[in-house]
Amino acid sequence: MYGSRGLGLLLTFAIIARLGIADYGLYALAFSFATILGPPLDNPWAVRAIRESEDDFNRERSSRYLVGVALVVVGLALLPFDKLYLLWFGFAMAGGEMAFNSLKSRAVREGHPDLVWRYDAIRQTSSVVLVCAYLFAVDDPTLKLTSLLYCAPYAVILVLAGAGVRGHRPGLPGSPRQMVYLTAEMGLGTAAYLQGDVLLLGFLTNSTVVGYYNVTLMLATALAGIGQSFAMTYHEPLRKSGGDLKTGPKLRLTLTIAAAVGLIVLVTGVVMLFTPAPVPMAQAMVIMAGFCFLRTVICVFQVILYAQRRDRFRLASSIALLPIKLALLTVLVKLGLGAVAAAIATTAADAMLLAVFANALYGRRRS
């Protein structure tokens, strides 16, 4: 996991160095679109994969793969249209990741995060090597070819994932009603909640400001992923107990891990203040230390809530906070804070979300 995250940061710096912060901002916007498109569609499969029967898992894994392939096909159809960069890259990335998730789902279900992150590292390493080789081998690299090379490993993934689901009849991930809830939770709750601010920031400012903020967001979310990895090791006992807190991650250990990763982001931001790095980026990095701490804990709490099947609660919580977050971002941008505005808005929103989740899991009525 950590190697692939580090490679992602390396790729960020390579793109900025060879294409410029503005092109990196466009790249980040396309990634945000892919995040808002793909994970919501994938969420019904992702949630049910860790808690449903073996027969349901196999059927749903097959349909998950087919939907991913369909998204890739849409992206390739839009490829010839240069003005639709955000759309073709977003569809191709979303579909490739969905097919990839079907390949990784067995390891996720059985609680083996080490295998999941190993798969991610292989895919990420392949993409980074291809892109960096291109960026530094030619005199005038382009964003379009850079993005195509980043997606190239998904061609191999489509073949491997297809072989993995062969022989299983596709099945829907739950009832239509449950699918709507789980898609909306990820779409309005998680994807739009985490990436909507990037798109709004791009609309309100420019791709350079987006580039500044996205560098800080990438580092913070990469480190917060440690919380997700930690919680994944409890999938089996949580599924068997129906989400009993006694079978899940210990709260004290969760907070310790969150504090450690938050401190890393804080130190990074402080050091950046004394380097030639853009001041708004350094200031945003310092603020995002708080986000990193909060998001790490939230990742752990979400796994417990998944096991408790509290889908409506998670959906309602995220939807309620989304307009607050975007409204706060808009006001702060109008005050001229730029990338710092996004850092403040996302940290404040996560503080509220964590308070809601903590009350639901550890409040008096659940004690």
List keywords for this structure.
globular, single chain, mainly alpha, 367 residues, 14 helices
Structure write-up:
The chain has 367 residues and is mainly alpha-helical. It has 14 helices and no strands. The chain has helices at 2-19, 21-49, 54-78, 85-109, 113-137, 143-151, 153-165, 176-204, 207-232, 235-241, 251-272, 279-307, 311-334, 339-362. The chain starts with a helix and ends in a 5-residue tail after the last helix.
The parts where pLDDT drops under 50 for at least 5 residues are: none
What would you call the structural class?
A: mainly alpha
CA-based gyration radius: 20 Å
Give the helix tally.
14
H/E topology pattern: HHHHHHHHHHHHHH
Question: What is the count of β-strands?
Answer: 0
Q: What's the end-to-end separation, in Å?
A: 34 Å
> What's the story with the biggest beta sheet?
none
What fraction strand? under 5%
Shape: globular
Average pLDDT figure: 87
Helix content: over 70%
Write the layout of secondary structure elements.
Layout: H1 2-19, H2 21-49, H3 54-78, H4 85-109, H5 113-137, H6 143-151, H7 153-165, H8 176-204, H9 207-232, H10 235-241, H11 251-272, H12 279-307, H13 311-334, H14 339-362
Quick description:
The protein has 367 residues and is mainly alpha-helical. Helices cover 83% and strands 0% of the residues.
